[in-house]
Amino acid sequence: QVQLVESGGGSVQPGGSLRLSCAASGLIVMRYDMNWYRQAPGKERELVARITSGAGTTTYADSVKGRFTMSRDNAKNTVSLQMDSLKPEDTAVYYCNAHLYVGYNYWGQGTQVTVSS
To answer: In this structure, how many other beta carbons lie within 10 angstroms of the beta carbon of residue 1?
Structure first.
């Protein structure tokens, strides 16, 4: 059974940092495209960052480029999202996603990130 468990969310002031982690079981993260999505109240879920299977190439949404860094630890079978210079508009529930192809798409339960003074 596949499980993705996020951790590391919380509340932080603007300009602060948080590090999200996603621990995977039942799949090997290196074999999947791993993604971080977020969903703010009243908005659609949006892709924030991706690390591709194999080589681990990262891509980011324009809104977080230069501030967020996604990484993968193959030994621990985890992916992380380092979030720096956080802004109030980064407030959302953040979800870890693993995608291989149709029928092999998995989600974590989400973790709340709140950026507020």
So the answer is: 5
- Is pLDDT above 90 for 20? yes
Tokens of 48: 């924030």
Q: Look at residue 102 and tell me whether its pLDDT is greater than 90.
A: no
**What digits encode the pLDDT tens for the residues 38-87?**
999 999 999 999 999 999 999 999 999 999 999 999 999 999 999 999 99
DSSP letter string, the chain = --EEEEE--EEE-TT--EEEEEEEESS-GGGSEEEEEEE-TTS--EEEEEE-STT--EEE-TTTTTTEEEEEETTTTEEEEEE-S--GGG-EEEEEEEESSTT-EEE---EEEEE--
Q: Determine the residue type at 25.
A: S
Residue 19 pairs in a beta bridge with: 82
